Amino acid sequence: MACLRPVHICSLPLVLCAVLGISSRPAQGAEQVKVFIEKLRERGYYDVAVDYMEEMKESPLADDQFRETYLFELGLLLTDYARTTSDTKLRDQLYTQAREKLEIYGQGNAGTLGGAQALTELSNILVERGRQLVIKAKLPTQKANKEALMGEARKLFEEAKQKFENVEEFYKSELKDSTRFPKSIDPAKDKKLFDLRQEYRAQFVKTGLDVATVVYELAQTYDPTSEEGKKLLTEAAGLFGKLYENYRVWLAGLYARMYQGRCFQDLKDYKTAISYYDELLAQPADDPVFRTLITKTNIQLGQCLLAQAVDEKKPEKYDELVAKILPWVTAARAQEEKTTDIQQLKYYCAMAYEERAKTTEEGTLKKQMLKKALELAKAVSNSRYSGDYAKLAQEMVLRLRGLEGEEIKPESFAEAFELGKEAVSTMELLKQEAKSIPPDKTDEISKAKLEIDAQRGEAYDMLKLALTFVDDKVRETQKEEIHLVQYYLCYLNWDMGRYYDAAVLGEFLARKFSDSGGARPAANIAMAAYLQAYNDPDNRDKEFESERVVDMAEFITRRWPDGVEADDAHNMLVNFAIQRGKVEEAVQYLDKMSPEYVNRGKTELKVGQELWRKYLRQSKLEGAEKKPAAELDALKQQALETLLKGIDRMRKTGEVNSTVASAMYSLSQIYLDTGEIDKAVATLEEEKIGPLKLVEAADPATTFPGYAEAVYQLALRAYVTVRPARLEDAQRAMDNLEKQVKSQGDADAAEKLTQILIGLGRQLQEMMKLAKTEEERQAIAGSFEVFLERIAKQEQGNNWASRNWIASTYYDLGSGLEQGKTQSKKSKEYFAKATAAYEKILSDASAKKIEAPSEDSLLGVQMRLAECERKQGDFAAALDRLGEVLGTKPMMLDAQIAAAYTYQQRGAQDPKWYKSAYMGGRKDPKTNQNRIWGWFQLSQKTRQYPKFVLIFHEARYNLALSRFEYGKTMKGDDRKKYLDYAYNDVASVYKLYPEMGNDEWKEKYDSLFKQIQKELGKKPEGLKAIDAELAASNTLKPAPK
Amino acid sequence: MKYLAVLLLSTLAALVSVQQVQAQGFDSVRSQGGKVSTQGKITEITAEGVTVVKGAGGVKDTVPVNTIYMVVFTGEPAGLSRARINALNGNFSNAQEELSKVDAKEINRPEVSVELDYYKAFCAAQLALGGAGALPAAETALVGFVKANSSSYHYYEACEVLGDLATAQKKYDAATKYYGPLERSSFPDFKMKAQVRLGRSLQAQNKHAEAIAKFDAVLGTSATGEEAEKQILSATLGKAVSLAATEKIDEAIKLVNQVIEKASPEEIELNARANNALGSCYMKAGKNKEALRSFLKVDLIYNGLPEAHAEALANLFKLWTSIGKEDRAQEALSLLKERYPDSNWARGVGS
Questions:
Q1: B79: three-class secondary structure by DSSP
Q2: Which residue of A has its CA nearest to B262?
Q3: Between chain A's N and C termini, which has fewer beta carbons within 10 Å?
Q4: Among A407, A421, A497, A525, which residue's Cα sits nearest to residue A463?
């Protein structure tokens, strides 16, 4: 149903402009503010104009007149901007802003002409918004929201009505005020005042029409057959009728009559409506003003007759429509032909022919009717002035050609576009339906998938075909439709997994036509498509995709900086940067996000955790790579602050999810590692989002693997190190940890628990390393020792795992207090305690007091024992023990490595052991082979296996190191010989394996190589020297990376 | 330049005036931006001024060349009149089209033939300066005119344009030579104009300290009058451009704003140059939004000076691209390439 829209009887007249102080001509001045704004408006650069205008308010370049009316002008500018944009989201924002400006201006100028004008404009916005809501509510897709949308529209119309009534009252009182307008004004004497009164009168009548129209619009929010709908239509008819009676000699009065007819038409009183229309159609048809009125009345009449034909089942009404309207259409003047109104009337005639043909028997007459309908529909479809009717006519053309038995093959852009669009809609509906199919109904799912694929293919073909019809005319008249075709194709490509095609098309649309409606979603598709291409596992060189993702996201942030798209794009960039290990970039993008962005909190948590991980990595670096303490502290602080901000934001939202849970864990970890134990405990135990609370409540946010275990481990560390130590809580945490591990039903649960406990010990060791003072370190160790002893004394409940943990923790405590290569008194004590604890494990296991989980577990204890012996300098005992282990299990690589290291360490006492380190020792009497392989054999045995690549490099590195150390103790030729061996050991590895395992090993090799070069009297330039050698010989080059 | 300084005088009004003059059978010398008219019979034309004998009494009045806005000869072809108005309004391509239609054989006054020759050479030069024509050919044509008509009242203006053509071709020594007659003329405002032009030529060579000295020399003169005021504003602007080039952005912005504040809206050239200068300063300061507006003002309001318009369009292309409005960037680029295809600005941007 067409909307009732009063034509503008008069636009803002010059007389009123003068009174309002709104200049209708450009102001002349140093800064031509208004001229510039007008030019920007003409060019369609509304965004620049709005920004400029807002800034000019404060500028000394603007004059007082500008400042006085600026809010009003800005409101109008925003309204125009809203009307021109096809971006619905932006349009909504602009209308809201326009409304705010006009409201403020109206309030500040209440009771003045300026205030009245602002109210009128404001009300127009409200009516426009209301109409949009009504249109939306009537869409089939909005069935569920229909009532809510109608309710919202109603509120807007009611508000508009109130405002229009105030405006009407203003003009009325002004016109009545004899001090303002004397009863008699002689135009010859005071033309200006006379003209002004005329304008006020015109505005008064116009506002009366506005009031009546908004009542009619209110009626549209109800079913026309409902009581409320009927009541409002009757009220509107009354208001229009009154206007007609009072102003029948004015054009406005005649329009009021037409609208009154429309109200009766909606009330299904077709007879009264038609009588009113007929009355208006009798107006003289010579005057262009009346011709417009007649055309518009014909439109109402056409709609009325079409409705009457259906409602009253009177097909002859179609004949009446053609008889009354077609002559007017065919007699239209050339200029009128170029209006949507005339095209609309043609379409009604085509409809009438088509509908009439349905009730006509097969034969010549019917054929003639269909032929005429087709001719008219084609004419509307081909006209560039048809507006919304082009699409309807197009559908009719396709329908009628189908009736004629023609295969529907699109012959124009519009036809192909319509068919393509329809196929896209059908595909989307099918997708919706497919979602409701239960997953077990695989046949149905397959069938739905086939149907979706078919529709997608149809849509794709039609839209591609549409583009082949694009010529200058289409380009000129259907620019927005072309962009829509491009957007649909972009979407379909995405849907089909053709990511490159989607990305290229989306990017083209977003960049070249960024004001078009599809530009924003197209930009998002392009970005997502590049991301998909980046993540494609078959894609090895990801540089291009990476660049495009970033470039596209940055484009979005530049182009729509204030929209949620910009924040979404920044969010994507943060995630992408994290994915690529570029946390600094992630921080930069995070900083660009608006504070109100809904996902900011979560993103801060992610970035905070990444920063923390980076800190942990960097704090472990040694030697040349070791980072300065200040840099590490700054990084830690940054991680802490970012996490705190994110957590604070999430606390406010009350949302609990896995990101929050992880972040709270990381925060506890930071506090623990920075010695702020109280805060760590408080964080772990925080109500609602504390990790311990979440785990204990089995919150779904904590169900991801490993979380609960990690939290209990952290809690254990925190309770042990807090002062005073909370040993009972620690015991409980340990119990929970054990339960947690066992609850997973893992066969190796005990072994796993042991590993966890060992891991815990290591963390404790790290913590002690990070302690800033010796005192702090001792304190941590002391506190922990108390705890360990208490556990050790508890016979009940102590098992293999806990015993193992106690022993390994003593070991770790000892390691943590090592002072370089020498052992402190305290560290020796801990290693002794560890030795005792491990020996006790072995003896208890032997006595069956505790049960070893497996044979390997016993060997593991032996190995740890050997380590303890080595740490205490008892190399012979350690080697005996390791030899024994290797006698049982020669392939046990950990034992082989430990044995080689033991020899190597022993070399410091007597250089001959360096040779054993790489040559091996402890001959097996049965096999006559060395049980301990040494570094050389270790490297030989592991070389072929990719999974042992790092062990291979460990062995090769230590082979070179042992030879180097050995060589250094020699003199003369022997010295050179061993140093050369060492040199070649490194060089050959580099030539064959240029990556040298990983960056860490490469760094070590390089450092060792420099020392070797130095000892050999060469320039200590590291591995670079080998590159130079290779370049010079040009024979054997390192394999490309 | 005076031909750009008078947009306020509408084409229609000017044409009406011309027709009136012709109808009455008088020559007319318009001065002071076209506001004052001296009518009668032109008896002498020199590079320094035009002498008119007025009325039956035969009173002689010599209008100095530095005040002349235009001269209309009785009996001149209508096409020449229209072309002159177009040229004065900066519509050089329209002017050129009108001139091409004038049949030189129908002209029976030698001074009118000189007028026709001048405007042909002048329009070609202006179009070439704006990037719509070859600079060397324009220079050759104008040199030809000057050699043949050294006593034309257009002499000084022709020298000025020749200097501009040489500067645009990076022939700086030649430019200095061409500006020489203005510098040596007896009119203080011409001297000032020469200094401003020489300053711009030095700027083009990146000799900013020397350029500032030239501009300061103009700013230090005590000459008064409308034309002198214009030159002072031009010198202020020139100085600002050099300050900006030497990274004294804040100082430059302050100076340019002073120029904009004082310049009349009808001063197309000055406003265009000032807004371009301001835009460049803002770009250097990283204030792209402000820069965009300055260049938009040139594009939308002060677009009568081709070289300035081309500069603004080239910068708009860059700025729109930088904020992701690539459709608008393309719009600016298309206009630049279409309207000023031979300009350095068009060659320097886009694909």
A1: helix
A2: A30
A3: C
A4: A421
Q: Answer yes or no: is the ipTM higher than 0.85.
A: no
Question: Backbone dihedral region of B225: left (phi > 0), alpha (psi from -120 to 50 degrees) or beta?
Answer: left
If we measure between CA atoms, which residue out of A262, A279, A270 comes closest to residue A313?
A270
Torsion of CA A181, A183, A187, A188, to 10 degrees: -110
> Could you tell me how far CA A211 lies from the centroid of its own chain?
44
| Residue B340: partners with Cβ closer than 8 Å, 6 or more residues away | B130, B131, B132, B306, B307, B309, B310, B313, B346
Minimal CA separation from B327 to chain A, in Å: 4
This prediction has a pTM of 0.52
Query: Would the CA dihedral through B8, B13, B17, B19 be positive or negative?
Result: positive
Among B293, B325, B330, select the one facing A559 at the smallest CB separation: B325
Q: b or e along A18-46 (b: 16 or more beta carbons within 10 Å of the residue's beta carbon)?
A: ebbebbeebeebbbbbbbbbbbbbeebbb
- Token reading at B83: 């072309």
Tell me what pLDDT residue A680 has. 92
- From the CB of residue A638, how many other CB atoms can be counted at a distance below 10 Å? 18
Cα distances from B208 to residues A991, B197, B238, B241, B280, in angstroms, run 58, 13, 10, 9, 16
Phi–psi pair at A130, nearest 5 degrees: -60, -45
Is residue A778 helix, strand or coil?
A: helix
Q: Using alpha carbons only, how large is chain B's radius of gyration in Å?
A: 20
Encode pLDDT of A355-373 as tens digits: 999 998 888 888 889 989 9
Given a cut of 90, whether residue B121 has pLDDT beyond it is: yes
Tens-place pLDDT, residues B264-281: 777 888 889 999 999 999
Return the closest-CA partner of residue A932 out of A888, A877, A895, A959.
A895
Q: How far apart are CA A235 and CA B7, in angstroms?
A: 57
Q: How many CB pairs under 8 A join A and B?
A: 52
3-state SS class at B59: strand
* Nearest alpha-carbon partner for A423 in A447, A454, A386, A465: A454
For residue A353, the model assigns a pLDDT of 94
pLDDT in tens, A885-927: 888 888 888 899 999 999 999 998 899 999 999 989 888 877 7
